[in-house]
């Protein structure tokens, strides 16, 4: 969305259909808590990087464990 009065005023939204999401901190790190065990597609997106296209990565969360993922935008 963009303000029709001020072109510098913009907002981007990426709707998700589940409660498992995160916003990356200034250090580039994120954490998604309480994810049930299973295989998932993790998606990272930034409107100004990678031509605005999301990057996807398959991960597996094991019961009672954590999983790691690393995304690199160029």
Q: Could you characterize what this model shows?
A:
The protein has one domain (1-65). 0% of the residues lie in helices and 19% in strands. It is built from no helices and two strands. The chain has strands spanning 38-44, 55-61. Strands 1-2 form a two-stranded antiparallel sheet. The mean pLDDT is 88.
Q: Helix and strand succession?
A: EE
Strand content: 15-25%
How many β-strand runs?
Answer: 2
Strand order in the sheet with the most strands:
1-2
Q: Helix/strand-derived class?
A: mainly beta
Taking all residues together, what is the mean pLDDT? 88
Regions with little confidence, pLDDT below 50 for 5+ residues? none
Distance between the termini: 24 Å
Give the helix proportion (percent range).
Answer: under 10%
Computed CA radius of gyration, to the nearest angstrom = 15 Å
| Main beta sheet | 2 strands, antiparallel
Overall outline: elongated
**Overall tally of domains:** 1
Assembly state of the chains shown = single chain
Output the number of helix runs. Answer: 0
């Amino acid at each position: 969305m963009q303000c029709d009065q001020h072109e510098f005023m913009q907002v981007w939204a990426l709707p998700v259909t589940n409660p498992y999401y995160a916003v990356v901190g200034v250090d580039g790190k994120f954490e998604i808590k309480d994810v049930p065990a299973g295989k998932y597609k993790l998606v990272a997106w930034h409107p100004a990087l990678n031509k605005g296209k999301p990057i996807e990565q398959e991960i597996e969360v094991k019961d009672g464990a954590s999983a790691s993922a690393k995304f690199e935008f160029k």
